[in-house]
Each structure stands twice: as structure tokens, then as C-alpha cells.
């Protein structure tokens, strides 16, 4: 993929970056170099490579996935004008 001058201007506009006309050619070269590097990365065979969180081996901290009510349902609805069984009651807006 190659970036032309119009694409550089459009990217700058979308990113809300003001660029001068003399900067367009330089930025075009920079963007094309980045895209060429990304294309090189797609050639790397990563079959069988495990996903990792860091370059150093480490175990992720995990917590037990338990469903709870948080233990503070009364505190949550305490200031509500109307509640029922720890739920907020709201006026009906659709018939």
C-alpha cells in the first residue's frame, strides 16, 4: 500500500493536525516507511507461538469469577425516591 499526498492531507485533517504544504512530502515518506514495515511483519510465521503478556515470563494475577450482589444494595438505593427489592423504580415512559 502506498500513501499519496492527498491521503496525507486527509489523515492530517482527520487527526486534527495542522501541516504545512512543504511537510506533506516528508510525511508521505514517513507513512510509506511505516506501512512497509507493517507489511514486513505480516511475512513473519507466528504459527505455534503462544500469546504473551510480557517479554519476561510471568503469571497473570487472577481472581475467582464469582457473581455477588456487592453486599451494598441497601446503600446504593438509599437515596432513590422509589425502590422495590433493591431495584430503582422509574416512571413508565412507553405505553
UniProtKB/TrEMBL annotation:
GO BP term, example: translation
Record bears the keyword Transferase: yes
Record-linked SUPFAM superfamilies: Glu-tRNAGln amidotransferase C subunit (SSF141000)
InterPro entries found in the cross-reference section: Asp/Glu-ADT_sf_sub_c, GatC
The keyword DNA repair appears for this protein: no
Recorded GO MF terms: asparaginyl-tRNA synthase (glutamine-hydrolyzing) activity; ATP binding; glutaminyl-tRNA synthase (glutamine-hydrolyzing) activity; transferase activity
EC code: 6.3.5.-
Catalytically driven reaction(s): L-aspartyl-tRNA(Asn) + L-glutamine + ATP + H2O = L-asparaginyl-tRNA(Asn) + L-glutamate + ADP + phosphate + 2 H(+); L-glutamyl-tRNA(Gln) + L-glutamine + ATP + H2O = L-glutaminyl-tRNA(Gln) + L-glutamate + ADP + phosphate + H(+)
Keyword annotations: ATP-binding, Ligase, Nucleotide-binding, Protein biosynthesis, Transferase
Transmembrane segments: none
Summary of the function given for this chain in its UniProt record: Allows the formation of correctly charged Asn-tRNA(Asn) or Gln-tRNA(Gln) through the transamidation of misacylated Asp-tRNA(Asn) or Glu-tRNA(Gln) in organisms which lack either or both of asparaginyl-tRNA or glutaminyl-tRNA synthetases. The reaction takes place in the presence of glutamine and ATP through an activated phospho-Asp-tRNA(Asn) or phospho-Glu-tRNA(Gln).
Xref: NCBIfam families: gatC
Complex and partners: Heterotrimer of A, B and C subunits.
Family: Belongs to the GatC family.
Annotated protein name in UniProt: Aspartyl/glutamyl-tRNA(Asn/Gln) amidotransferase subunit C
Species, as recorded: Pseudolabrys taiwanensis
Gene: gatC
Amino acid at each position: 500500500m502506498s500513501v499519496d499526498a492527498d491521503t496525507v492531507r486527509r489523515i492530517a485533517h482527520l487527526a486534527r493536525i495542522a501541516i504545512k504544504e512543504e511537510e506533506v512530502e516528508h510525511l508521505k515518506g514517513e507513512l510509506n516507511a511505516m506501512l512497509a514495515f507493517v507489511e514486513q511483519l505480516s511475512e513473519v510465521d507466528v504459527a505455534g507461538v503462544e500469546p504473551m503478556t510480557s517479554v519476561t515470563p510471568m503469571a497473570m494475577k487472577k481472581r475467582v469469577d464469582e457473581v455477588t450482589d456487592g453486599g451494598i444494595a441497601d446503600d446504593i438505593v438509599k437515596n432513590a425516591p422509589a425502590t422495590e427489592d433493591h431495584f430503582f423504580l422509574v416512571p413508565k415512559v412507553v405505553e
